[in-house]
Amino acid sequence: PATFLMALIAALASSALQTVTAALGLTPSTRGPPSPAAAPSAATTAKDLDVVVDPATQGFCTERLGRLKQWVSSQVENKNVAGMLVGVIRNGRLVFMEGAGNQSDEPRTPIARDSLFRIYSMTKPIASVALMMLYERGLFALDEPISKYVPCFANMRVAVGGKYPSIETVPCTTAITFQHLLTHTSGFTYGFIPDEFDVHKEYEAKKVHFTSLEAGGVRKDTLKDVCERLATVPLLFQPGSKWTYGVSTDVVGYLVEVLSGQPFEEYVKKNVLEPLGMVDTDFFVPPEKLHRFAACYKYAQRQTQGLTISETGFVTKGAYDLLDDGSSYHQLPAGLCSGGGGLVSTIGDYLRFCQMLLNGGILDGTRLLAPATVAFMTENHLNGDMADMGKPTFLNMNRRGQGFGLGFAVVLHPPHLGALCMRGDCSWGGMASTFFYIDPANKIAAVLMTQLVPSSTYNFRRPLRSLVYQALVNP
């Protein structure tokens, strides 16, 4: 009887609780996060990143994601870009994929998920992963001088005064290391970024160009040829003392070639792109895919006829004009493959790369890197943030609160950065305004594809992140 009485009381209590919760409109599913968001799972098949799921199952508000869709459409409606495509994944599931506009205005070709884009500097993280795969094989140490493997970099000099062609230099007292290259603290710059000593003009004079084509067709140069010319140009500063953007990752590409004993592009294809199923990512566009290759546009300054590039970024205004219709720049196999900016890709392919990083180095059962290596790459490797390293702004954006890892920018302090983002976010973009970021803590990645040079014409990067996070209501 006592046992029966206790069971009866428990049943009555349970019934009463159900009655109350029903009256209040509560159900078990509304009392906590959806199970997929509560228990993240890694993507195991290509289908997981191809089919858009109900965003609510991954903690997103569908209505709020509508704001992101509206923002994408507004960029085309306002004639900021010809077309734009954005994809968002969480927990290995595709929660958002929307596009607007055209991949080409003339002839008019609507943008599509299989459109091919010049990702330019979004090649850098892929090249960095390739190098770190060789690091995991014990082929080099991060703090080793690169001159051990590429002797032409053994006796570098550093600019300290004067201007090209009469630059005053002193011997380099700190050898350039692998870590310097991966963090852009090597002292290398770009030939199109002005500096106080006009070192960039020497880059141009000596044709330090890591590009596949030149006037007249495919270049006959090799990565080795360009690196040897680069080694005769002064560094902007002693390695490790400052941060500046430049050809460091192109040198990474050559080191991959030297260490692996394979052409850089062959190593990347066989060890990164093919294992990840990035079937449309390559250093050129074959003829059968040219109809999917997006045109690239630029903003023209009508009064000065051309692009102006400042220390903090590009300064442009005016309507966009056609820069490259894709008919020649990428249609032939590249003669020189750039680790710093040579790849063409699709949004789906790059989302797969992002998911591999979120998974700790593995996708579809194929492991590229160990989880510890990915975590190490996505930590800050600078002495402070980018402002501490002499670069408080870059590409017209504040860089306080942002550090740099081995191939990625890393958010250290969102309030200092002045943007809605998460501590530990890793990201980078390309010259034609493409952008990606990964948020390891929330298992989120987003990729934005468009084709507008230069990348600082509009600040797409921070609105994208804020629009993603304002829709994440169940972290």
Assess the beta-strand content as a share of residues: 15-25%
Distance between the termini: 48 Å
State mean pLDDT (0 to 100 scale). Answer: 87
Record the strand order, biggest sheet: 3-2-1-22-21-20-19-18
Number of helices: 13
Global geometry:
globular
Annotation, overall tally of beta strands: 23
List unreliable stretches of 5+ residues.
1-44, 302-318
Main sheet attributes: strand count, strand direction, barrel closure: 8 strands, antiparallel
Counting helices, strands and paired strands, the structural category is alpha+beta
Residues in helix, %: 25-40%
Rg from alpha-carbon coordinates: 25 Å
Give your account of this protein's structure.
There is one protein chain. It contains 13 helices and 23 strands. It has 475 residues and is of the alpha+beta class. An eight-stranded antiparallel β-sheet has the order 3-2-1-22-21-20-19-18, with helices on both faces. α3 packs antiparallel against α13 (461-471). The radius of gyration is 25 Å and the shape is globular. The two termini are 48 Å apart.
